[in-house]
Amino acid sequence: MPSLAISALVLPTAALALVLPPLLQLEASGHYYTSGPLWPPFRWLSEHLLATQPSRLTRLLDSMVSSKQREAILYCDDAFPGLFAAVGLSLIGYCLTSVAIAKTKDVFLARGFKGRDLLKNNPDQIPESLGLPTAAVYMALLFLFIPFRYFSSRLQGIYKTGDDWEGRMDGRGGFPHHELASFLSALLSFLSAIVLGFLDDVFDIRWRYKLPIPIISSIPLLMVYYAGGGGTSVVVPGWPGVLRQWIGSSILELGPLYYLYMSLLSTFCTNSINILAGINGVEVGQALIISVSLCLNDVLYLDSRAGVAGSRSSKELLRRHLLSLYLVLPLTGVCLALLSWNRYPARVFVGDTFCYFAGMVFSTVGILGHFSKTVLLFFVPQIFNFLLSCPQLFGLVPNPRHRVPRFHAPTNSLYPSIQYFASGDKAQDDRLPNTSTKPLRPASVVSTLILKLLSFLRLVQLEFYDDHKRRIKSTTNLTILNAILVLRGVRHRPTTHPDEKPFTGPHISEYGLWLHTMLIQVAGSCLAFAIRYWLASVVFP
């Protein structure tokens, strides 16, 4: 749970960010007092705080902020509506998530949601699926955000009486209907991802069944994208020039294929975080870095002069990236709290629930913000991990249930885990360890070529049956975590005595491997910014 000092700093700041801008807007609107019929509690509150001139509200605000501070807050709230509320709710989300995990972890443990840490000697069970209360807090924050953003004292006709009510199906004039529809469709997709993740935690759904579900969950997003006139064309790179000559245009219209791409984006983002897992804090850490990177990318488009000549942003770009911040800022807050519980040594496990809902948030931001390609750039480590894992995911290499590195207790170090191939000699094959669900088989020609290429790139460690290195005996499991260990020089060494160290090379602890992975994620974000804001201007002149 957050310390008393952190709570004493965070909660008042969050309360001010939530309450102060609406109160200042209410006072500045001049419509805060109505003499018509009101519900008695509201009438008493209106007469007590707002009826006098100057009102008690004005005197209260004068005691809290100066006139210059008031003007600055009103200016920022007008230029970036809802941003103060998103910041305030993200701070509250940090505290609420910490409290929620502390209060529910024992309940999850008692209900059987538990697991043993494979990279520790500690036999104690650890609560699992704590991504569910994290996701619940996140969803509550987004629901609370709606009135702060979309109920405004500046909205026309907000103070009309019941006699003036029209009840029009197309809604109130001047209201951002499409933005609210986009926001609500995002909530619907998040809820479906949370349900899928929790069902996976409970029933351990097989990959062939759960892969199509994010595609169905993305349908509300795609419909809102279509209703908003979202484009389905892509810019053809100007380099090499032969591409545009071959296509005959600088713009390529993809039509329905673009919608297929966006639905597949939701599937990839939802599962990519789940694939890059296995050590304490790695799922939450990568989600936190991607979330912060998206926030920084959004901030680049926050220009109060949007739409004016010389501005770095247009009004439409400003609205898109504000919507992104509405969704990503609260995620940053809850991820930061969850990381404090899941970091090494983990006190809770996040489960598939967190991986699915966090991935759906990122894909939703990319689709609704119309910058899905930029979002993919921040997934460079996940894309690399997926491509590296493809030979195992598609059956070319035996695929065990757990591909995490192995733990050596005497040195508190990790070393790459191994997957064996059959030799063709049944007696010899029966002595080989088999962690996959299928019988061992010899490496095929395609598998051999792929694994030798990966070995040349120092991403895997191979062992051969023959001196000519034609028949592969074993390979390290194809994950980025094992690849990091191999790149650092950690080599698996078969041993016959239990006291012998089963690896050679440097000693890298689980926390050290987590730091390596997070540095790669940060480097991936830096590369994404370089591609998006430097290389893109070269390739797409």
UniProtKB/TrEMBL annotation:
Q: Which InterPro entries match?
A: Glycosyl_transferase_4 (IPR000715), GPT (IPR033895)
Q: Which UniProt keywords apply?
A: Endoplasmic reticulum, Glycosyltransferase, Magnesium, Membrane, Metal-binding, Signal, Transferase, Transmembrane, Transmembrane helix
Q: Which domain of life is it from?
A: Eukaryota
Q: What is this protein called?
A: UDP-N-acetylglucosamine--dolichyl-phosphate N-acetylglucosaminephosphotransferase
Where in the sequence is the signal peptide annotated?
Answer: 1-17
Per its UniProt entry, what is the enzyme's top EC class, as one word? Answer: transferase
Q: What is its EC number?
A: 2.7.8.15
